[in-house]
Write a structure and sequence with these properties.
three-stranded parallel sheet, Rossmann fold, alpha/beta, purine biosynthesis, 10 helices, methionine biosynthesis, 2 domains, EC 1.5.1.5, THF_DH/CycHdrlase_cat_dom, amino-acid biosynthesis
Length: 291
């Protein structure tokens, strides 16, 4: 079993981006973060993204809005950033308060600044295998992990657990595209799937993004499977100072002995998401400069 070190792979991408940004003469790329409310996980994620941007040489600007912000006020903020030629990428930190529709909000961001890859136009471009759009950062990170870990996808059976707009669907589209990594046979499973273990045991590559702690057990995978665990779940642990620990959607200790390669949680897909956000921001900057 080989552990896929997401921290190390993300670090190499960050170093590549730092080199590219350092060679830019004059104005550097700028990414804007909009955070609504003070959800502790959102605060932590945005801080991590700001720190990574700073390391690379990408300028970040943070816009904080109250939890009870109106849709009109949020959209006015997005419109202002859309119109600002200095801003290359716009990221709206999810989750948003219940009174604001996330899809409508993501679609308010100009597709050319949608570095999160959530705008309907960018998702449509992914369906059409049009490389000019932005791919959502977590699925893009999964593809990079697979490619840089030399996991073969052509002709393989990829099983995706989960059908979210943010991970499951785009990951499935990337794996079935006529390119590498891709050219795979893809099965998408979810909470209504019958005989789920029977399907997951067929997987040459299993992408688990179902959002349930330790959901995939040892008897659900075959020998030699490559496992990409996207889940980040908090489970109570009184031995930890903070009272919990992070686990994935895969029961690591049971699945790892059967896997040829596997991502840990934390330290697997997570760091890749931030690295790919920065990759998308640099792409948006270059497209704006060329445009």
């Amino acid at each position: 079993m080989k552990l896929i070190d997401g921290n190390a792979i993300a670090e190499s991408i960050i170093e590549e981006l730092t080199t590219q940004v350092s060679q830019i003469q004059g104005k550097k790329p700028v990414v804007a973060f909009i955070r609504v409310g003070d959800d502790p996980a959102s605060v932590s994620y945005v801080r991590k993204k700001e720190k990574t941007a700073q390391r690379i040489g990408i300028e970040s600007r943070l816009y904080l809005l109250p939890e009870d912000v109106s849709k009109e006020a949020l959209f006015a903020q997005i419109d202002s950033l859309n119109a600002d030629a200095d801003i290359n990428g716009i990221l709206i930190q999810a989750p948003l308060p219940k009174h604001i529709d996330e899809t409508e909000t993501f679609n308010r961001v100009l597709p050319s600044k949608d570095v999160d890859g959530f705008n309907t136009l960018n998702i449509g471009k992914l369906c059409q295998e049009d490389d000019s759009g932005f791919v959502a950062c977590t699925p893009a990170g999964i593809v990079e992990l697979i490619q840089r870990s030399d996991i073969e996808t052509e002709g393989k059976h990829v099983v995706v657990l989960g059908r979210s707009q943010i991970v499951g669907k785009p990951a499935a589209l990337l794996m079935m595209r006529k390119a590498l990594p891709g050219n795979a046979t893809v099965t998408v499973c979810h909470s209504r799937t019958q005989d789920l273990p029977g399907i997951t045991r067929q997987a040459d590559i299993l992408i688990a993004a179902i959002g349930r702690a330790n959901f995939v057990t040892g008897d659900m995978v075959k020998e030699g499977v490559a496992v990409i665990d996207v889940g980040i779940n908090r489970v109570e642990d009184s031995s930890k100072k903070r009272g919990y620990r992070l686990v994935g959607d895969v029961e690591f200790d049971a699945v790892a002995p059967k896997a040829s390669q596997i991502t840990p949680v934390p330290g697997g897909v997570g760091p890749m998401t931030v690295a790919m956000l920065m990759h998308n921001t640099l792409r948006a900057f270059k497209a704006a400069q060329a445009g």
